[in-house]
Amino acid sequence: MAVLLLAAPGKALAWGAEGHEIVAALALRELTPVARGQVARLLGGETMMIHDANWADEIRDQRRDTGVWHYVDIPLQAPGYDRRRDCPRGDCVVAQIDYDARLLTDRGAGEGARAEALRFLIHFVADVHQPLHAADDGDRGGNDVHVSIGRERATLHKVWDVDVVQGLGLDADTVAAALARSVTPAERKAWAKGTPAAWADEAHALARDAIYPPIAGRRSLRLPRDYAWREAAITRTQLAKAGVRLAWLLNTTLR
User: Fold this and answer.
1) CA–CA distance, 193 with 190 (Å, rounded to integer)
2) Region at 16 (left for phi over 0; alpha for psi -120 to 50; beta for the rest)
3) C-beta separation of 128 from 97 below 8 A
4) Can you tell me the distance from the alpha carbon of 111 to that of 69, in angstroms, rounded to the nearest whole number?
5) Taking a C-beta distance cutoff of 8 angstroms, is the pair 204, 131 a contact?
6) pTM greater than 0.90 (yes/no)
7) Please, what is the average pLDDT of the chain?
8) 242 exposed, middle or buried (CB, 10 Å; 0-12, 13-18, 19+)?
9) How is residue 214 annotated by DSSP?
10) Is 184 helix (H, G, I), strand (E, B) or coil?
């Protein structure tokens, strides 16, 4: 299993760099020629979609107001997303995906504004599929749950950002290619639809029903050494869904 990174101060970054690159690389494979051309024009090259996948994390120190756009704190035991409760001022990942998609569609907006909206979308669609970015048990999405695996110490959130992804392999393009091959036509058709709120509900349900029950309310615990392997099915599915849905969204908006 991949080595855990020590938890850093502040809020963790969803999926880590590799996860975001996997989602972007998978989405790039699914783009129509028209959407691919639009991405290349706005970003300066189609592969910049992968290069810029972590741009939204890289600017957080300079643009602190964007930090809350990466997640939505849906209470763990809630049935799902409620805009008035979870995102009253539009400062959450659900609202920002909607906002950036509308901006990207607006051909009257400046090229710089549309390019920025595209960079945010590439990142935020991946974020909303990370289960701990759509659920909160009074622990900042698992940031306050301290875990150990072997000799390593991290947070539950950090494990889901980094280790469960690295458990699939350490090369983003190789993992993306494997995921692309694994997605069936029926899955692609079923996933290429929906709303950011619905995607958040799916991620929240995974956190509530699969990730948090073994934690049992603890704030410090030891996880099994094969934790990343045990969670590989959820990780693969969420990354694949994010890639397929990002491509669908861009194919719809960049026509």
Assistant:
1) 7
2) left
3) yes
4) 22
5) yes
6) yes
7) 93
8) buried
9) G
10) coil
